[in-house]
Amino acid sequence: MNTKLATIVTGGGRGIGRAIAKRMASLTPVLVVGRTQSDLESVCKEITALGGTADFIVGDVSDPATATAAVAQLAAAGLSVGNLVCNAGIGTSGAAHTMDQKAWKDMFAVNVDGAMWFIQACLPQMIERKSGSICVISSVAGVKGFKYQTAYCATKHALVGMARAIALEVAKQNIQVVPICPSFVESEMTDRTIAGLVKHRGISAAEARTIVENTNPQKRIIPAEEVAELVATVCQGLVKSLNGQPLMMTGGE
Question: Looking at the whole model, is its pTM more than 0.85?
Answer without folding.
Answer: yes
